[in-house]
Design brief:
about 10% strand, about 120 residues, three-stranded antiparallel β-sheet, globular, mainly alpha, 5 helices, single chain
Amino acid sequence: MAGLQRITQPTLDVLEVLLRAHRGGEKIHGWAIAKETKRSGPTVYNALDRLEDAGWITGEWEELQSDANRPRRRLYRLTGEGAPAAQALLADRRPASKVRPAFGFSPLVHIRALLAGEQ
């Protein structure tokens, strides 16, 4: 996998959204990423292009019914190599990020669950 040549704040924003979608088992389209990151379309799509060129994400065109009254969207998802790379990069560059490791124990989450009566 090629490395990212340019890592910008918008790229990190896009990676956070992609990582949340990945954890939810979802694919996400560029407009939804732009909306969630509050970044312009060209900024988001440039970051997506760089991530796709690096092999961190893949994109595919959605299947659309013939009666759909909108254009097809390109759906993105992290690759098997891109997900851990994104997690590591975000942990390094944004240690206070809301994106948490997928594995391991988080005392705060455990305490909240106990207080809410979940176990």
